[in-house]
Amino acid sequence: SSVKLLLVSLLSSEARNFGSMLVALGYIYPLQDHKRLVIKPDASLYRFQTPYFWPTQQWPVEDTDYAIYLAKRNIRKKGILELHEQEHYNRLHKWMNHKWDFIVMQAKEQYRAAKERKKPDRVVFECQERAYWVVHRPPPGTVSAMDYGLDRRIDPNTVEVTGESLCDLFKYNSCQSCLPSNPWLTDDATYWTLNMPNVEIPTKMRVERWTFSFGELLSDPRGRNDFRLFLKKEFSGENLAFWESCEDLKWGTAATMREKAEQIYKTFLARGAPRWINIDGKTMEVTVKGLKHPHRYVLDAAQTHIYMLMKKDSYGRYMKSPVFKETTKKAICPEEHKFSDNQLEQNARNRRPSLSPIILRQMEEEQKAKMAANVDITQLCRFTTPVPHLAVYSGISDFPSATASPSLPFLAHTPACPSPISVALDSTSASERRVEASEGEGEGNPAARGPVGGNVSRSRMALSLRRLLKRGCTPSTMFASLSPKCHSAAGTSSRIQPISPNQPSQAPPRRIANFFQIKVDIPPECRIYPIESEDEEEENRAASRGGVGAKEIICPWESLTPQNGTG
Amino acid sequence: IPGPLCYSLLLLVVACYRHLASCVGGCTDSLQLRDELRQTREKAQKLAMAICQHLTLHLRDKSLPEEQRKEMELLWVAFSSSLELLHLDMCKVFNMSDIFSLANTDALVQTGLQGSEVAARALSLPDLNQTQSPTLPAGLESQERSTLEQEIGQIDHMIDDMEMKVNVLRWMVEPHGPQYADPLSSTDSASLAVFSVDEEQPGHQPLCQRNKFCAVLFLFAVVLVAGFISVSMVLFSGVCF
């Protein structure tokens, strides 16, 4: 008979190795399950490959031949091409387009020539050709013996690792304790699904990793989410947000850098910023100075400071927090898979390509945008308002209100220094303004990229809506969600007062290009809490107040421009 | 003049050659196979030579109209690809016949083939002024080898020559045909333009036209026979029942 049966004894591992090598390189091929080039210790049949298709002489494996082969397969049965073959075919059609007539016609001729043969011979030839292409154009996810040619080592445990296939490294070195099972070995992708970046319920091993160090927690997206949740409950989410925006700046495109730096400054660093972060004076000075000429690493000092702050302070508390305890409790520990050989074959057959990285990136972006929209801030600190007897200005001389009463440092929208954190100038109450700022902030988070104009109109609309709702809404309900832990430890310091009605529509004063320093007397142990106790009184006084003066946050790097009253 | 039909003949021959080549070293390897290989490649070479001359001549002609030039270039690219394929196969056969000598039939690999007449299709084509030679005697295997070596060199030379003499920008060529091979399309060479017959070389023209004529005749004969059989069957069945 023309079919030779190749039996491999289980006990003889040497024979098995040799057999595996033969089949992986294409000297023999399996008759069933042709896609997996392995020797199975059962009664499955193998056949010798014809010398024309041997890899010995290392003849070049031409793409032209592959294209002809795929075209032939398609003639035999339309639509039979697998996904990766289809992709190859399309790619070749693009790159070898000039030869395509030849390829199609040659495929037809080869098909017809094959028909001349007797049926059994035709089948044998088809099997031979198919086996050849499984060796030289392996399906994705397969370990190919052709990766390093005939010099490839089978045993990855040998000392030299230079010639190793990456897949082998994965198989034998890492993922030893993969639960439920190592996908490289069993073709079952559950392990990857359970450990996706933003999975709802993490695995126990993953959660345990977070306890190793703060860096581990931050680098795992799921861990970071958890941490963010915890910080949100503690109302110190701005630290993490700042850290993340610094990362964004560092890793972002050069074109967006200036804009991002501006954004970060306005959101986190500036006097009276909605999400002001608590860094020491020296670092602030260095940072603000550097922001004059922003570059990728300009916020490094501040970022490190915040990182250390989180590590020493928040991380410890996070470990003891109910959020973390909850997560740990919910974490799953999957059972180990025990696949039979048939099931392994089934898995191999059902292999599918994973999501395209383009789609994954889109999903990430959507996630980021969603998170940006849900930012919860009302963290204006009373300590950031310019206290006349403490604050040190330089260069800003034209504020008529400066002597009268401390003006509320608000971020106004100007053409010169546009900010999505824009507030309409005709607000009527401090609390409204603050809420307004937070709403604007929600859109103006460094991660968001909405057009400035749109944000202005949106904030204006929101403002009018607020005014409508104001009648039925008491400040206590508005701020009910705020942390009750606010202690007015230094209650004697200035309170935020609405701008006096003297300058409703005054043109914004001329600014001088300087960066200003602010020395505010903040007790080191003070945490930034939203101001609750004073709100109600201000709310009551709201109706009598007039418009807001155009006080703007001046970016240190902006040059002076004469303003015309539009805010 | 070699028209598109001649080119598709070349493709046919090249495809047959490949099928034959895949049997070398296997259990169906034999003197006959080697002989068929030889004949097939000789046929291929003759066709190739003719097409090459024709194409080179026309493409070097500066006064060729633009559209015809485009078609010629298309054919050029297709032709050079088939030539490369043939060259590759010939090299493989040369290599393998070194390893698998017919003197030692035990060393032949049991590939599971039974042997069939692949070459019949290629060899049944009308010869280009050449008589069929008898089966090669066993002792002339080495001669065969050197002949093959020579012929490989010739093809190589032809390919080089083509590149030297005519400058065709391959990436500018746009194919006419579909992306997927359609087995049902009867017009093989529909994607290659039909050339106008050159009056200068009448010798080749009747060859291809004769081919068409033979095919039509054959078809007619088949239809006649089929009709006859069906009629007789009807009559017989009429007689039986």
TrEMBL record, chain A:
It holds the Pfam family RGS. SUPFAM superfamilies: Regulator of G-protein signaling, RGS, Winged helix' DNA-binding domain. GO terms for biological process: negative regulation of signal transduction; regulation of G protein-coupled receptor signaling pathway. Residues 213-328 form the RGS domain. It comes from the Eukaryota. One of its GO terms (cellular component) is neuron projection. Keywords: Membrane, Signal transduction inhibitor. One of its GO terms (molecular function) is GTPase activator activity. Residues 425-456 are annotated as: Disordered. Its main location: membrane. The keyword Membrane applies. It is found in: Membrane. InterPro entries: RGS, RGS6/7/9/11, RGS6/7/9/11_DHEX_sf, RGS9_RGS, RGS_DHEX, RGS_sf, RGS_subdomain_2, WH-like_DNA-bd_sf. This is Regulator of G protein signaling 9. The lineage of its organism: Eukaryota, Metazoa, Chordata, Craniata, Vertebrata.
Automatic annotation (TrEMBL), chain B:
Keywords: Membrane, Signal, Signal transduction inhibitor, Transmembrane, Transmembrane helix. The chain crosses the membrane at residues 215-236. This is Regulator of G protein signaling 9 binding protein. Residues 1-23 form the signal peptide. Belongs to the RGS7BP/RGS9BP family. One of its GO terms (biological process) is negative regulation of signal transduction. The keyword Signal applies. The keyword Membrane applies.
